[in-house]
Amino acid sequence: MYTIEGEIVHGDEIGRTLGFPTANIHMYDETVPDGVWAARAAFRDGRTHSAVVSVGRRPTFFESDAVRLFEAHIIDFAESIYGEWIIVELLDYIRPQVRFDSIRELVSAMHADRERAAAITPPTSECERSTGGDARGPATRAPRWALRRVRTASADIHATNEGDAASGPAGLQAQVRSLSRQLGMSRGLVRRCLRELNDAKVPTS
């Protein structure tokens, strides 16, 4: 539905005090409707996680003229990720922003939101976690943003070096190294994208 990406920045940590720490991204896209969303969050190294996202002005705490925020609570995740780049796909709309009468009501609603988001967006599979994201098959699908970038960069390489590219394992390794440096992605993620694009199993639009 919508994809938002950017650097994770410091917020006022209201979510953390409520037991729901969030990854905050500057909100530039005004087309994204306010509300609570089920989402999938992806890092540049290929890791993906279920998330619940709040877009809006937090009416329980602030008035309607407050700053509009994009806050992603990554489910079952406890790492410090300030300064990292994150890509968040909003997958399903859960509910609108609501002004609650008490913090207790808000926290109860947030627990329900997280449970619903987790049900909509399954966590990273055991297979993908145990293999570092380099196994084959539907359970190890690379993020769409990574597939798009690798596909575009690969096409540019082939267009520039048509007829000169090395073939076989050595050629593949050279291509993986080149794309990894060019795109700032791990070699494992680049290799997985190339495999999936070659098998034509994953839509990239």
> pLDDT below 50 for ≥5 consecutive residues: which ranges?
125-140
Name the helix and strand elements from N-terminus to C-terminus, one letter apiece: EHEEEEEHHHHH
Can you tell me the CATH class of the largest domain? Mainly Beta
Radius of gyration, CA atoms, in whole angstroms: 19 Å
Structurally, the number of domains stands at: 2
According to CATH, the homologous superfamily of the largest domain is: Riboflavin kinase-like
Major sheet: 6 strands, antiparallel
Principal-axis shape: elongated
Mean pLDDT: 80
Beta-strand portion reads 15-25%
Strand order of the largest sheet: 1-6-3-4-5-2
The span between the termini is 11 Å
Q: Give the structural class.
A: alpha+beta
Q: Number of helical runs?
A: 6
CATH topology of the largest domain: Elongation Factor Tu (Ef-tu), domain 3
Tell me the layout of helices and strands.
Blueprint (H helix, E strand, L loop, with lengths): L1 E6 L6 H4 L5 E3 L9 E9 L4 E9 L12 E6 L10 E11 L7 H18 L5 H5 L13 H17 L7 H16 L3 H13 L6
Antiparallel strand pairs: 1-6, 2-5, 3-4, 3-6, 4-5
Helix pairs in contact: 4-5, 4-6, 5-6
Quick structural summary:
The protein has 205 residues and is of the alpha+beta class. It folds into 2 domains: 2-124, Riboflavin kinase-like (Elongation Factor Tu (Ef-tu), domain 3, Beta Barrel); 132-199, no CATH class.
Explain how this protein is built:
With 205 residues, the protein is α+β, with helices and mostly antiparallel strands. It folds into 2 domains: 123 residues, Elongation Factor Tu (Ef-tu), domain 3 (Beta Barrel); 68 residues, no CATH class. 36% of the residues lie in helices and 21% in strands. It has 6 helices and 6 strands, in the order E-H-E-E-E-E-E-H-H-H-H-H. The protein has a 6-stranded antiparallel β-sheet. The protein starts with a strand and ends in a 6-residue tail after the last helix. Keywords: ATP-binding, Flavoprotein, FMN, Nucleotide-binding, Transferase. It catalyses: riboflavin + ATP = FMN + ADP + H(+). Its EC number is 2.7.1.26. This is riboflavin kinase.
